[in-house]
Amino acid sequence: MHIRNWIYNPLFFAATLLCAAICVAGTTRATPLQKHSPALTGFLGLNTIPSARMDEVGTVRMGVSTLDPYLHGYIGIQIAEPLHINIRQTAEVSNLTEAPKTLYPGVDLKLRLIKENTYRPEISLGLQSAFGHKRMAGEYIALSKRYNNFDFTAGIGWGRLGSAGHFNNPFKILGSHFDHDRNPDSDTPNTPSNWFTGDKIGLFAGVEYFLPYDGLSLKLDYGADRYTAEKNNFDYESPAPWGIGLAYTHNDWLSASIGMQGTDKVMGRISLQSIPSKWPFTHKTYPKPKPFYKQRNARLNIASMTNAAANDDITLTGITSKGQSIFAILDISPHIPAPQQIGRAVRHIAAHSGQDIEEIIITPRHVHLMGTPVKIMRSDVENYLKNNLSSPQEIWKNTEFVVTTEDNKTSNPFLSIRRTNNKTTFTLALENQISLSEEESGILYRSSAFLNLQSSPFLGFLTGTSLRLNLDNNLSERAYLNKTHPTELTKSYAQARISLENAYVGYTHSLTPDLHFMASAGYLEEGYAGLGGEILYRPFSSRFALGAEIWSVTPRQANSPLNMGLYTGQNSITGHINGWYDLPHHDITLHARAGRFIAGDVGGSLELEKIFKNGAKLTGLVSLSNYSDTDIYGGTTHAYNSLKLTLPFGNIPYIPTGSEIRTKIAPFDRVTAQSINPPQRLFEMTENFTLDHMAKHWTNILD
């Protein structure tokens, strides 16, 4: 599926007519909504030049744009407040109905350095094709400043974005490296060694005027791209450097623009964007709770407590009492905020605890992994629910997270014999993997549906099975194939309509509330079977976590029934040391790992993941290896990059909680820097045990 299949003439003209209709029929407002929109290649900007502006955190944008001789397709994610990542495929094609002559994929980055205030502009640094083809590669520093309805932008550009050559490169004083010119037609990919190089740089500037109509703006800019490579390679008449365009953003999800570059070239763009935190679906939500009791019961009734909780889909076990304290183990779902589940459990415990109980101590448990016990004062809950004299903040003030000592260990169910947790869960998943990094094949995709079943049949053990239904793909159109993969290619895996994704047996155990262990064996993922395990040290109140994992795996045969056959004699050992850090104020987790990959290469990876309150996740990953792998240009690369967006939809009627939609942007058939992807990870399984999670979701304590 070439990139031209993303857009057809009717769609392009419909977007043009939409903008024109809005210009004529828009309704004037005293205070119009002023919305920034992207430039041609996907970042927020004017027509062809970038600005310093950033999207709202979590914004995901997909779009197409055209300006002779290129058509751009892109998917971008504002993964953090100061960082935007854009994966782009640029096609050399003048007529949208024709197949592209050449494709120029790239990964673009934009980093905000300084945020705008009353006296200073916003300043951002960007790299177009930071990793990708050199034809579109260029770096820039942009400054943007708002004045009433005007948003002014100016900046300097290197590479393609500075080919006008207005000034000498100021970075040349830092070393001879920056004095080297790059060849935009080279078959070698753009790398950090090419960033900010060149004898000359260019100056660009422009202004966006927000019209008195919601979402409508006029853009005027002057760029520094002189189309040097195009004029050298084919009969191309470059347009004037100035451009003018009209942009419209509708309800924050649709954006379109139409404009002119010079007097002879038309440009157009249409994009869709959304913020996962505003996704209307989430994981499971509890119904409105029943009215709370007015008076305390005369005596403790554990049977009634357990039954009432079970009717509310709350599982309480190991209930014991000692003096004025009552202890219980709560089986929590990883897809619902732990404070909300704890609050529901506290309701039922308080309603059946008799007259004398004052302290409710709940130990969270998930598939036999145990968290830090939470002690909540019963009177705080009663004051809130009966008399509205308290608040979640007051409850938090008196809440304690209990550390087990010699004095309380006999009454703490964490150290008692754990009862069987026989629970079965069923989830659904829809997955789309897209590759925009294929030079000869355009955009490749694969769509699948998953049916997942997990159970914990007896003490400490768990089992899981997942079936993959291959819905659609265009992998048969691929011209470039990596021939060095030890198993069949992804194309072969996708041929079977139904295959076994994983089937495994595992064992989990918490040595302490901060130290957890898990072992697994079976079919671990689509490409590999094997056995291994991991250990995780995750202190309750710390932002740091440390772990280690080791796996012995064997590649699976794609053409066997359900892809269950194995290539015997091709075992490999892979293992990593893992470290995590939760960045304060950003709700972002940084994950670094180092070790041995499946192919025997050694290296590491760096991952950023943002989790929204509704359960949506954004993940960006870069992996580096000491081995080189064939890249899309026929050369070699040591790096692998991917983006992943996960959206929950488990609150839809008849859809099981934990169901999700996954979109992954990554190249197919990677060999180097490849690690095992087991069906369960201790870090994700213990997320609801942490102080950070408790504090973030504490307002849900009595929902």
How would you summarize what this structure contains?
The chain has 703 residues and is mainly beta.
Q: What's the architecture of the domain at 3-274 in CATH terms?
A: Beta Barrel
Total number of helical segments? 9
User: Would you count the extended β strands for me?
Assistant: 33
Low-confidence stretches: 1-31, 405-419, 479-488
SSE-based structural type: mainly beta
Look at the structure and give the mean pLDDT.
84
| CATH fold node name of the domain at 3-274 | Porin
At the fourth level of CATH, the homologous superfamily of the domain at 3-274 is monomeric porin ompg
Largest sheet: 13 strands, mixed, barrel
Rounded radius of gyration (Å): 28 Å
End-to-end separation? 48 Å
